[in-house]
Design a protein that fits this description.
By secondary structure, this protein is an alpha+beta fold. It contains seven helices and 21 strands. The strands form five sheets. Strands 5, 8, 15, 16, 17, 18, 19 and 20 form an eight-stranded mixed β-sheet that branches. It starts with a strand and ends with a helix.
Length: about 350
């Protein structure tokens, strides 16, 4: 059986592992302290941590000088799923995919103020939870992850050569199929370290416009809008802000206040282009100082010189695939987890079945 190596420690990696097979190896650094000794530096501009949530750091080779955008990087086990809201749009997921989630102890919970502390005007939006009712954290499905950092990769004969940093030392490994499930920032940095993109490359992404709105409502269950809205009770919003992935006594008390926080995912698209200059990722449209692009944290459809990521990597090798926000173009505003599941299942299950026929 061909060896499959999945790189990443977040939601995409957990779904890729579920879609691939039991023999797939997952690698991600469990600690970043030793990486500083290998020419990687911390970039606080990419870091997103919450007061009571799991802390992670951003390390890479590229520096960043972003002015009109904000990107995020959570390098470590769990990734974004250790601080996210866990929402998913079930409208396009088949029974097979819902069963795949259930088999892997990823449970679907209908939104309701009493249980999830949230509600949406889209009836297909649910929350992903673990078996005890907390918001799903991908680290629960990645217990046997190999503690290593993929510094770069290249082709060598009929295999993919992996240059790893593991237990404080560099070593080389080989794989037949490489599945990149790292975040957007780590992906750009990895392609740069692997000499696949340079200062001549234009990197673009899109997102749906997004905003947070605080509302006072006596009848919060009525949400009239053409935009996709996820409404949080005040206490639940505070939990999310602090990084608490379940209900707490404080949130129950604060939820008695008739104040609500709306996450508004608009239908209008926003596009942005980046370039690498002097070893740093910068905005191509760096005009003004107001940060606009990236606030949704659902930026997606990463293109390099106009090529979508799948097409770009296909030119390198058909055995290099990927999953996550950079590899999908979000179909509708709101959750993006469903797009990631559909994409990875197609690549690792449907396409594999076609080849094996």
């Amino acid at each position: 059986m061909a060896k499959v190596t999945i790189v990443g420690g977040g939601f995409s990696a957990a779904i890729a592992k579920a879609c691939a097979n039991e023999n797939a190896t997952v690698i991600t650094p469990l600690s970043v302290d030793y990486l500083k000794d290998f020419g990687l530096h911390r970039n606080a501009q990419f870091e997103i941590n919450k007061f009571l949530g799991k802390k992670t750091y951003s390390l890479g080779k590229l520096k960043s000088f972003l002015i009109t955008s904000v990107l995020h990087d959570r390098l470590g086990l769990g990734g974004n799923s250790s601080i996210w809201g866990g929402f998913i749009n079930l409208s396009s997921l088949s029974k097979e995919l819902l069963s795949l989630l259930q088999v892997n102890n990823i449970h679907i919970k209908k939104l309701a103020f009493r249980s999830t502390g949230s509600l949406s005007n889209n009836p297909y939006i649910y929350q992903l939870q673990n078996r005890v009712g907390k918001i799903y954290d991908a680290s629960e499905n990645l217990i046997e992850t190999q503690d290593a950092y993929l510094e770069s990769f290249s082709l060598e004969k009929h295999q993919i050569k992996l240059n790893l940093i593991e237990t404080g030392e560099r070593r080389v490994s080989y794989t037949d199929t490489l599945v990149l499930c790292v975040g957007v920032v780590q992906l750009i940095d990895l392609l740069y370290r692997s000499h696949l993109i340079s200062s001549l490359s234009k990197i673009s992404m899109m997102e749906y416009e997004y905003k947070l709105v605080t509302r006072f409502r006596l009848f919060p269950g009525k949400i009239a809008s053409k935009d996709t809205i996820i409404r949080f009770k005040f206490g639940r919003a505070i939990n999310h802000f602090l990084g608490i992935q379940g209900n707490s006594f404080i949130s129950k008390i604060l939820s008695l206040v008739p104040i609500y926080l709306d996450q508004v995912f608009c239908t209008k698209e926003r596009n942005h282009t980046f370039v690498i200059r002097d070893g740093a990722l910068i905005d191509l449209e760096a005009i003004g100082s107001q940060i606009e692009f990236g606030k949704s944290i659902h930026y997606c459809d990463l293109k390099i010189d106009g090529d979508r990521l799948d097409d770009f990597l296909e030119k390198v090798s058909p055995n290099i695939k990927g999953g996550g926000m950079g590899f999908v173009r979000q179909k509708t505003p709101g959750p993006i987890s469903n797009d990631i599941i559909l994409d990875l299942h197609h690549k690792l299950v449907t396409q594999r079945a076609i080849v094996e026929k």
